[in-house]
Records
---
Amino acid sequence: MPNIPVTTWSLEQTAPTDLLPAEPPQRDVRIHRAEVPSPEFSRYLYASVGGDIHWTDRLSWTYARWQEHLERPGVETWVAYDHGTPAGYVELAPQDDGVVEIAYFGLIPAFRGKRIGGHLLSYGAARAWDLADRWPGLTDTKRVWLHTCSKDGEHAMGNYQRRGFQLFDTKVEEETEAPTPGPWPGAYPA
C-alpha cells in the first residue's frame, strides 16, 4: 500500500474560561460517565467511533491492557446516549502537572450531523476542567489539550475551534495507507 501524508494538529485550552459551550441538541441526548471500568464497552466505543477514520492504535490491546488503562486514576469515559442508544464518547486522561488530554472523542457514524458532537465536546471539556474535583490527589487542571488529524471527520477541527481550543502545533508525517478497520469488515461503504 502507498504512503499518504497525514497532518496532525494539536489544540489546547489554558483556562476554563476558554471553553465556548455548544447549544444542546434538540433531541433526547444524555451524557453519563461510565463509572465501572469495562474493557468490552470501551473497546466497543473505540471501534464503533473510530472504525471509519482509521483508529487502529488500540485494536491490538489485550483485555488486561484495556483494564489497566481504564483503572488509572482520573481516566474517565463520558458517553452520549441518543434516546438511550450510545452515540459517541469522550475519554479524559490526566497527565502530569494538571494537564488533561482529551484522548479520544467522536461519534458513531449514524449519529454524526445531528448536533450531538459540539454538545458532547463541550461537556467533555468541562469535565476535563473539573477532573480533580472527582479524583482526590490529582492536581487541579491547568490545561486541556487534544489532537486531531486529516483522517478525522471534516467537521472535527471546526468543532474544536468553536469550543475555544487554540492550535499550538502541527506535524505532517507519512503513513501507510490502509483500509478502514470498521467495527467489523464491510461496516462502512468504501
---
Amino acid sequence: MTSAPRPRTTTRDPEELGRRLTAWLDRHLPGAHVTGLAVPGSNGMSSETLLFDLDHPDAPVRGCALRLAADPAAYTVFPVYDMARQHRVMRLVGEHTDIPVPRVLWLEEDPEPLGAPFFVMARAEGRVPPDVMPYTYEGNWLHAATDDERALLEAESVSVLARLHDQFPAKEAEFLLPDGPGTPLRRHVDAQRAYYAWVVDGLAPSPLIESAFDWLEAHWPADEGPAVLGWGDARIGNIVYDGFVPAAVLDWEMAACVPREVDLGWAVYLHRFFQDLTVGFGQPGLPGFLRRDAVERRYAELTGHTPRDMEFHTLYAALRHAIVMLRIAYRQARFGEVEVPADPDGLILHHATLAAMVRGSYW
C-alpha cells in the first residue's frame, strides 16, 4: 500500500480548465474573475473536483467547488456520469432535510465549455478524514483525536444517515430507481450486475465477484423493508467536519432509492476496508471506531428502525467495492501502472475480506 503507485486521477490540464471556466462564467456572471483555482490532492478517480474563488460584487458565494464529470479519455470508473442527477439530488436534500449539503449554484449539461458536464456549488470549509493514507493510520487529525472526540464524530455521522432516511420523502427518491422489474433492492443489485459485466467486457472475469453474487441470491432478505433515499457513498471520507461535527455532506453520484441498510452496510464496510488494510500493515488502526454493533445500535436509537440482514448488506457493500476496485485496477493497467496477474481476483485489494464474507467466516 505504501509502495504502490497512486492511480492517475485525471488526464486534464488544470490551467486549460481554468481558462475555459473563466470564459464560461463570464456568460453567467459578466466581469467575474476566477482566482485561486486548485485541484485537491485528494481528488477521486471518478468525478473530479476543482476549487476556486469567485471575485464579483454580485457573486452568490466567494468560495466555490466545481464537480466535473470524468474525462471520457481517462478510462472512466463508471460508464455514465449524470451530473444533472447529482445536482438534483443535492438540491432536493437541501430542500427536504436539515442535512448540511452544499448549496448548488449552476448546472451545465453541455460538454462543450469544459469537455464534460459539470455543476458549481458553494465550497465547504473544514477538514475531511483522509483516504491516502487512510485515517486509520497514524499521523492524521482523526487518528490523533481522543476517544471521546471520535465517539462524537461517529455519533454525528450516523445521525446524518438517520436524518436523511427519516426526513427525505421516499416518493421523491423514486426517480433514482433503475429501469427494470422488481423491488428497489432487486433493481439495485441487477444494476450492479450490469456494471460488473461492463467492467469485465473483453477482460478476465472475477470468480470471487461472481461467487459473491451467487451468495446474495442464496441469502436474499425475506423482508427487504421500505426504500428511502440512500446517500450511496455513505462514509466519513465524504463529510467535511467542523471540529468533529459534520459541516457538509459530499459526493452524491451513487445516490439511490434503496432500503436503509444499503447505506448502513456501505458505511460499516468502508471503515472495515481501511481498518483491515491498516492491521495488515502492522498498525492497530482504530479498532473501537465505527464498529458494526455500535453503528446499528445508534441508528436504531435515532430512527426506531432496527437494522436487519446486515451480513447481506455488508457483503453487498464489499461486492460493490470489489467491482469498483477491479475497474480501477484495469484502469491502472491501461496506463501502465500495474500488471494484470493470472488470477484477476488478485487485483481486488480486499479479496481476502470478501472471500471470508462469502465463506461466512468474517464477522
